[in-house]
Amino acid sequence: MNKVCAIFGGSRGIGRAVAQLMAQKGYRLAIVARNLEVAKAAAGNHLAFSCDVAKEHDVQNTFEEIEKHLGQVNFLVNAAGINRDSLLIRTKTEDMVSQLHTNLLGSMLTCKAAMRTMIQQQGGSIVNVGSITGLKGNSGQSAYSASKGGLVGFSRALAKEVAKKKIRVNVVAPGFVHTDMTKDLKEEHLKNSIPLGRFGETIEVAHAILFLLESPYITGHVLVVDGGLQLVM
Ligand code: NDP
User: Which residue numbers delimit the Ketoreductase domain (predicted)?
Assistant: First the structure.
């Protein structure tokens, strides 16, 4: 397996689980996050890069570095994300902006940076990590939901734009998953509202991401991985 995959947000949580799964399958990986030390620890024998996805120059430079060291990128996973949960009336504008910049603009920038290579090589596969909140909305997460809903529109539009170049773009939309992002949530209270009765594990989302990355005839799809939460939201 010589394929190269860049995983933004690959140092922790869902992105890290994707990295572990793909490493086992022999992919060559670029693990990208802001904190280089944490990214290096997650990368093991693979390469780690520091990058803030919200900064265009950073993203451009990182892609150049990745291609210099690993060659052309075949697969891209956008798992970098942040949340700043609060009711809209209490949400600071800077928190709205940072969520939109990291969760939506960040993925747009990495996709744009990947396009040149993928168009040149007439092929590629991208999975953007959205959220069930982007489809259903969630009280206390209006800016976060906006960023994730925007990601669906963006991904489907890009899927149409580049299908003829044999580039596929899909979204995985998780529900509650055990990561740093959800560590302060009270699972005991929330689990009763999830049909499968529990939060998900990162590896369960990682399998869905890898499935879409490797599925040659699926594009523009949103795969929900939420223990049935969307059925009752
Ligand atoms: P974690 O907080 O565990 O990990 C987030 C990752 O993103 C880290 O690697 C972090 O590294 C990186 N990251 C954050 N901001 C930036 C940035 N500006 N530039 C580059 N990298 C960044 O989150 P999860 O694994 O839980 O989340 C992964 C994705 O899944 C996110 O998009 C999240 O919105 C989404 N999601 C998560 C759910 C959950 O229940 N956990 C549910 C639904 C969706 P560093 O801080 O070093 O930059």
Answer: 3-179
Where are the domains positioned within the chain?
4-232
Rounded CA gap, 179 and 12, in Å? 8
The ipTM (two decimal places) reads 0.99
Q: Which CATH architecture has domain 4-232?
A: 3-Layer(aba) Sandwich (3.40)
* 119, 165 contact by CB (below 8 A): yes
Pocket of ligand 1 (CB under 6 A): 8-9, 11-15, 33-35, 38, 51-54, 79-82, 102-103, 106, 129, 131, 174, 176-177, 179-182
Rg of the chain in Å (alpha carbons): 17
For residues 88 and 139, is the Cβ–Cβ distance under 8 A?
A: no
Q: Whole-prediction pTM value?
A: 0.98
Query: What is the tens place of the pLDDT at every residue in 9-32?
Result: 999 999 999 999 999 999 999 999
Q: Please choose, from the candidates 166, 162, 186, 168, the residue with its C-alpha nearest in 3D space to the C-alpha of residue 176.
A: 186
Is residue 97 packed enough to be buried (19+ CB in 10 Å), middle (13-18) or exposed (0-12)?
middle
Q: Give yes or no for residue 206 having a pLDDT over 90.
A: yes
